[in-house]
Amino acid sequence: MFSYPVKMERDTNNTYLVTFPDIPEAISVGDDEDEALLNALDALESAIEIYFDEKREVPLPSKAKKGQSVVKLPALVVSKVLLANEMIRQEIRKSELARRLDVHMPQVDRLLDPRHSSKLDAIEAAFAKLGKQLDVSIS
């Protein structure tokens, strides 16, 4: 599971501002700490979409300091981040992945949409076409 450390501070409006040291594009606010962290997940997923659109690797989370709050990405989103990063490393375009999977482009677009509830077997198939294997564990 990816747990991104956050920096949380009270701003001038007496609300909480949340930023991500690893992903500076993700910024969120909330009336209290809980709301700010809840909104932060949405901000993080939106920032990940930016990375995907710009074909940039999504930075992996750094280790949180003791007592530092974190925002955990859902496992499905983690698998999509890992898939997108691997495609970038291997210089595989979406059209090439679609060809390898023998699917239409919209299906690959959904695989790389953090907000779409893709099936895990489709993501596993995509990794296989990249010569990789998705491993799942419980901690």
Automatic annotation (TrEMBL):
<dbReference type="Pfam" id="PF15919">
    <property type="entry name" value="HicB_lk_antitox"/>
</dbReference>
<dbReference type="InterPro" id="IPR031807">
    <property type="entry name" value="HicB-like"/>
</dbReference>
<protein>
    <recommendedName>
        <fullName>HicB-like antitoxin of toxin-antitoxin system domain-containing protein</fullName>
    </recommendedName>
</protein>
<feature type="domain" description="HicB-like antitoxin of toxin-antitoxin system">
    <location>
        <begin position="4"/>
        <end position="69"/>
    </location>
</feature>
<dbReference type="InterPro" id="IPR035069">
    <property type="entry name" value="TTHA1013/TTHA0281-like"/>
</dbReference>
